[in-house]
Design a protein that fits this description.
homodimer, 142 residues, mainly alpha, DNA-binding
DNA sequence: CCATTTCCGGATGTATAAGTCCACTGATCG
DNA sequence: CGATCAGTGGACTTATACATCCGGAAATGG
């Protein structure tokens, strides 16, 4: 619930990119797969979305790989979710029917709005800079 | 995202049960399917979970159906989520690996905790009583 | 009792997400 | 240039959630 598998991968990959000392060096997909615990052959699928969304750049050939296009603190979780087609902004009301909206709300619409607002707030106010909030390095994971 | 399809059905079914004037009369699955917009043959699957969880009772035979076992205000969204195997309390950290927990948190664990706390708070503080917050009746949906 | 109603639950089918595979393209280095 | 490296993207397979089907069991009413 909350996040799907592909979004999780995207977050971990982005967090890994943001956690490295040299943000300008390229990280090949094999390293990303290992570091962010993403199935080897699935990395390219995940990263492609982030490239298309303009969050990371990709480079082919020797010495190529992926790198962040912005500062970690400029990349909100919301933009990562948008890149993985989970844009929290256009989620329909889970409780009403197709036509439930602000003008013709269902019985539970206020409850839905509260949830959505709090999720949106979280996604927009949290950025990759929070990678540095926590001292535990990724490498500690066995 | 946020809620899966089965959980949505469960919420709508529960909301319909809570919305009726006579809470003690039984509602057959055919009526639930119609009212809560659940695929006809899938209603029993959804309702079974709610029965097992002790939120509703079921009765077979003529005049049978489902009815709430508690007052709407006693039924929190959290208990409905638990009934549909989406217990928000035991969701692992989406950002860390398998071994990410409070003692050995990953880089993004604080961000995850904030999200989880806010979701838990919402699910526990919202009840089916909120069905009456909104004047729009379900029947208005074409 | 018997007929009917309604839930029960396993077996089965379908849609979508997740994951794999591979031939291709572009970049780099010697 | 030729060898190698690394992302690209389409085709394919697998896993999981969603949905359907149907025989059966309990409850009710006549």
């Amino acid at each position: 619930m909350l996040l799907n598998q592909t979004a999780e991968y995207a977050f971990r990959a982005m967090a890994y990119l943001a956690s490295r000392a040299d943000l300008d060096s390229a990280v090949p997909s094999a390293e990303l797969a290992e570091a962010a615990n993403i199935p080897g052959h699935y990395v390219s699928k995940v990263m492609r979305r982030l490239v298309v969304a303009g969050l990371v750049s990709s480079q082919r050939g020797h010495g190529g790989g992926f790198r962040l296009l912005k500062e970690p603190r400029e990349i909100s979780f919301s933009t990562i979710l948008q890149a993985t087609d989970l844009d929290p902004r256009n989620q329909r009301c889970a409780f009403g029917f197709g036509q439930c909206d602000a003008e013709r709300p269902c019985h539970l619409h206020p409850a839905w709005s509260r949830l959505k607002e709090s999720f949106n707030g979280w996604a927009e106010s949290t950025t990759l800079a929070s990678v540095h909030d926590n001292p535990e390095p990724w490498k500690d994971a066995p």
